[in-house]
Amino acid sequence: MDMQKDIAYRFLLAGGFLEEAEKDLSLKRWRACVYGSILCIENCGVAVLMLFGVSRTTHHPEKHLPQLLAEGTVSDEVAALIRELLPELEQHDSHEKMLAKYGRETAYISPWDVFSEQEAVNALNGASKSVAVSLKLRSLLEVAPEG
After folding, report:
1. Which residues, in sequence order, are CB contacts of 145 under 8 Å at separation 6+?
2. Closest of 86, 88, 87, 110 to residue 99, by C-alpha
3. Is 94:59 a contact under the CB 8 Å cutoff?
4. What is the Cα 18 distance to its own chain's centre?
5. Residue 75 phi, psi dihedral angles, 5° rounding
6. How far is it, in rounded angstroms, from Cα 135 to Cα 131?
7. Which of 8, 11, 88, 109: CA 20 to 30 A from 39?
8. How far is 111 from 84, CA to CA, in rounded Å?
9. Where are the transmembrane segments (predicted)?
10. Residue 59: its pLDDT value, please?
11. How far is CA 80 from CA 53, 68, 92, 137, in A?
């Protein structure tokens, strides 16, 4: 396993999902915009965890990043950026992902009827912010290879 390649791949995924979400918003595909935004945000969170050596297999970075903060081993600047990322991870979590996939099954509301334009815009804004914050963290935490 090459951690640097894994991290780069997570950032590639985040960027791709952000790009798709932007296109979906322009096409007024609210559900697809929200779903792509969620996947972007999730991949940003996983990439940040991986910067600290945490396994790429988690789909709940919002649960692991607070533990990292609680340890008190990161700089104030890094901690502030993680705190900036956390609300996006918490708001656009697994529950929202399930709504985007299955809708509100008990009420027979399809995924396409769950999300509004405003929810799509909010999710896309969260995805854009997550990419910006996680890239700042990456630049602070990654050590340039020697050579």
Report:
1. 4
2. 110
3. yes
4. 10
5. -65, 165
6. 6
7. 109
8. 29
9. 32-54
10. 67
11. 19, 12, 20, 10
Mean pLDDT over residues 46-68, rounded?
A: 84
pLDDT digits (tens, 9 = 90+) for 70-128: 988 899 999 999 999 999 999 998 899 999 999 999 999 999 999 999 999 999 999 99
pLDDT higher than 60, residue 145: no
By the 8 A CB rule, do 119 and 33 touch?
no
How does DSSP classify residue 56? T
Give me the residues paired with residue 109 across strands. Answer: 104
Domain ranges in the chain? 3-141
Q: CB–CB of 128/66 below 8 Å?
A: no
pLDDT of residue 43 exceeding 90, the answer is yes
Residue linked to tokens 């529950």: 95
Q: What CA–CA distance (Å, rounded) separates 41 from 48?
A: 11
Which pair of structure tokens corresponds to residue 18? 């952000």
Residue 133 pLDDT > 60: yes
Residue 146 pLDDT > 50, yes or no? no
Q: Quick check: pTM over 0.70?
A: yes
CATH architecture of structural domain 3-141: Up-down Bundle (1.20)
